[in-house]
Amino acid sequence: MVDLMGRYNPPVARHRWKIKFVPVVTLRDEIEAGKAADVREGLDEDTRQRPHLMRTPDYCWCDKDALAQFNMGFVAPDYVVEITVLPFDASNSENKAAHPGHVVLYPIHEDEEGHAYFRRQACIYAYTMQEIKELTVQQVREHYQPTVDSLRERLYALRSQGLHQKYPSPDQM
């Protein structure tokens, strides 16, 4: 997972994701039979901590070990791997975000092919660069719109007061 999350651009920091292995529950006898079997049995700690081969067509030591166990009649239990990418929290000091003009722009992580995905309702949607640009412009606009509205109101108030006094406009200077 560290390798995978590190390949995003920008990389997804370790504190922003978690992984959980949830055993697949089947028939009761299979569950009870699985309790007695331990996949780590026969492997010492040094063997289990060896680095894995990744992004290669060759089999890793763990693949070979699983195949050997299967050939000896041991069927490893099934698991669902839950990967959760946690929401970005700008107040967390571990998070690095762009803060131009005090606007927090959340990182958009692109995969190795330059695609960015967002969860929307009950599905995952791939955004185009144009859609990402529009989303960013909207975030900046939403951040600054109250300030723009406030300044506009002050300008109108000053102009209405200035009707009694003649001041040159900034364009005339």
Query: In sequence order, what are the helices and strands, one letter per element?
Result: HEHHHEEEH
Structural class: alpha+beta
Q: How is the largest sheet built, in terms of strand order?
A: 1-2
Number of helices: 5
Q: What portion of residues belong to β-strands? A: 5-15%
Question: Got a strand count?
Answer: 4
Report how far the terminal alpha carbons are from each other: 61 Å
Task: Explain what you see.
This protein has 173 residues and is an alpha+beta fold. Helix content is 36%, strand content 14%. The protein has helices at residues 2-6, 28-36, 45-48, 61-71, 129-162, and strands spanning 17-23, 79-85, 116-120, 123-127. The strands form 2 sheets. The protein has a two-stranded antiparallel sheet. Strands 3-4 form a two-stranded antiparallel sheet. The chain is elongated and about 95 Å long. The termini are far apart.
Topology:
Elements (H helix, E strand, L loop, with lengths): L1 H5 L10 E7 L4 H9 L8 H4 L12 H11 L7 E7 L30 E5 L2 E5 L1 H34 L11
Antiparallel strand pairs: 1-2, 3-4
